[in-house]
Structures are given as C-alpha cells and as structure tokens.
Amino acid sequence: MSGSSFKQTVLDRGKRIFARSPPGSLLPHMGGRPLLVVLVGARGGPAERWREFGRDVELFGLEPDPTEHRRLTDARSPGERYVCIAAGSERGHARLNLTREPGCSSFYAPNHELISQFSSELSHMFEVVGAIDVETAPLDEIVAEHGVTADVLSVDVQGAELSVLRGASRLLDSVKLVELEVELNPQYVGQPLFSDVDPFLRRRGYELLGLRRTLWRRKSRSGANSSVAGGQLIHADALYLNRAALDRATTSAELVLFMLALSAYHQHDFVEYLLDEHPLAGQLSGSDRLALRAQLVPPVRPLWRLARRALALFHLPHHMTLRALLVALRGTPADDWHDPDFF
Questions:
Q1: Alpha-carbon span 256 to 29, nearest angstrom
Q2: N or C: less crowded end of the chain, CB within 10 Å?
Q3: Three-state SS for 212?
Q4: For 68-83, what is the HEC assignment?
Q5: Which of 8, 16, 62 minimizes the C-alpha distance to 37?
Q6: Count of H-run helices and E-run strands, the chain
Q7: How far apart are CA 343 and CA 340, in angstroms?
Q8: What's the pLDDT tens digit per position in 280-323?
C-alpha cells in the first residue's frame, strides 16, 4: 500500500507537469527487443514511469484477485498482459484476505495491535471483509510457461515478498533491477520484514539503490494537533541493482537495457556514470552516446531552475528547505508521510 488514491493522483499529476518529453525509440540500441517488466501484485496497473517509454517497455503482470485481473485485462494497453495467479515459493493454493481497501489485501492477517495505534482511517482500510482461495506457483515456473524474459521485477504483495523471491531463484540471476515494498514494522501478523529481505537479496549479488519511506503518525486522544512532526517508519519501497548481472554484461545492448531501467527510476546519475565509465559504452559511437544521454537523462527545465534559485535564498540544502516548507505549510498532521519519489 502506498497511501490514498487521492494523494497518489496528486503526485502523479505533479510528476507529469515536469515529466520528460517522450523519447525516440531505444529498440535499435537494445538488440531490437523492449525492456520487459514483471509486475507481481499488479493491482492498479503499471506505474506511470513505464508508460513514459511507450513501446520500448512491455509489461507482464500477475494479479490473483479475479475481479482486479478482469479490470486490468479490459483496460490494458498494447504491450501489457496479465495472468490471474499469485507468485509464491511453491505450487498450491493460498487464502487471500480481502480488506476494505483492496490494496491492503494480503495472505497475512492485518496486525491490528500495531495498526490501531494510528488513525481510524488506517484501521478501516485494513478491515478484513472477505477471503478467496487463489492459485500459487513459483515465479520461475510462471515466466517460463509464458515465455517471459524479464529485465525488471516489481513486487507489491503486502508482506509476502520473501516468498515471491524464494520462488524466483533463476529469475533473480538475470533481472537487472528489483523494486519491492518492504516492511520495517509488521503491518501483518508473522510477515517477513526488511531485515529478512535485504540479506536475501545481498547474498544474490544485489545492492540497495534507493529506499522511499512511509511513516504513520499517531494522533492525540484529545484531538490536539500542536505539532505536525513525528511519525513511525512502517514500510518503504526499495530499489535493488543486480550488480552481479551488470558485471557480467557483454554487449552494449545489455548496458542500454540497464540504463533504460535506471532512468525509469530516476537514477540519472547512474545512467551518466555508465555512459562515461562503463567499458561497454565504448561499443557505442559518440553520437549514440549523446542521443542516449538526451533520451535517458531529462534536462532541468526552466521552472525547476527558478525554484532552485528561490530555495537558495534560504541558504539551506534544497531537500532540507523543501521538507521544512512542506511541514510548515501543513494545517494538521498527515496520517502518513511519504518520501518524495526519488526513484
């Protein structure tokens, strides 16, 4: 879960205002094939980051809820396909708890002892209103059955992330990036936490690139809101790089696939570093490198330049100034607080 639909809509619209111009096709630089993203827990559809690249990206989604699977299938764009199944560590069936807020549905029971300490809205969202029996299978088997060659793995399964990873041993050898929601405190009873997931991926040759945190804030029983500060770290969106796979890359097409994935997650400094320093970039002509830089590293637009100059008047680092201003402008505390989408 990543906050309310309203908040996410506002964030998405804000990002589109300052979004990159649609790039030309990168297919000639990627060996003629698009980047393929596997969405495990595809509820809500793909993030805007993937749509920005048009036909250079294809999506393969898993969604075990039949109602949401039908909606995704009916609304899909070219280059998208969805399967009604859940990824797990083995083949079988599992009980999916359906919550009042569909995005909170999980194979684990909500941890009401923790959730009840925060806003009543959160307790309402996590209320279980039903359950369904769903089919499960290892992700390695699912992608093999459907002929999928994955480049990016995006996992949002409300506490079952480690089970998904354990069933994706072969896939984890080859994918370039893994994005997944990780729990820092247990929203669900008995679920694995970030402290379980992070060592698992590091043993497979992955390194952590980004962590977009979400904090929940407790409210006073008296209703007084004397401060907008505070909050407890609950979950985060983590981004991992398969360093072992990057080190094994042998062609410039593989490198460009890495760079496209990194660009989608706003890792523009890494893209520029690879263009400047990676040995495989030498297989590209100077004009190709210039074109790739223009397509994958969006320029700073005039409005952002003006904003930076205004913030510089406060004589503080920009990120600290921006956070201070946003907090000061709040009339009342937010039930949850998300880091900006830095990746």
A1: 7
A2: C
A3: strand
A4: HHHHHHHHCCCCEEEE
A5: 62
A6: 15, 11
A7: 9
A8: 999 999 999 999 999 999 887 677 667 667 666 665 555 555 66
Task: Tell me the backbone φ, ψ of residue 155, rounded to 5 degrees.
Answer: -120, 125
Supply the Cα-derived Rg of the chain in whole angstroms: 21
3-class secondary structure, 36: strand
Report the interhelical angle of 252-264 vs 268-277 (nearest 10°): 160
21 falls in which pLDDT band (50, 70, 90)?
A: very low
Q: How far is CA 333 from CA 171, 177, 324, in A?
A: 42, 35, 14
* CA distance linking residue 4 with residue 337, whole number of Å: 11
Number of C-alpha atoms within 13 angstroms, CB side, residue 48? 17
For 40, the enclosing helix (H) or strand (E) is strand 35-40
Location of structure tokens 């393929």:
36
Tens digits of residue pLDDT in 23-50: 568 999 999 999 999 999 999 999 999 9
Candidates 282, 46, 35, 40; CA nearest to 154 is 40
Contact 89, 166 (CB under 8 A): yes
Evaluate whether 245 touches 174 at the Cβ level (below 8 Å).
yes
Determine the 3-state secondary structure of 30 from DSSP: helix
Q: How far apart are CA 332 and CA 217, in angstroms?
A: 11
Interval 74-101: pLDDT, tens: 999 999 999 999 999 999 999 999 999 9
pLDDT band at 223 (very low <50, low <70, confident <90, very high): low
d(CA 141, CA 167): 8
> Within 13 Å and on the Cβ side, how many CA atoms surround 1?
22
Q: Please say whether the beta carbons of 106 and 132 come within 8 A.
A: no
Contacts of residues 167-172 at CB distance under 8 Å and 24 or more positions apart, as own/partner, are: 167/87, 167/88, 167/89, 167/90, 167/137, 167/138, 167/139, 167/140, 167/141, 168/87, 168/138, 168/139, 168/140, 169/140, 170/140, 171/38, 171/139, 171/140, 171/143, 172/201, 172/204, 172/206, 172/242
Query: Strand pairing of 152-155 and 177-183?
Result: parallel
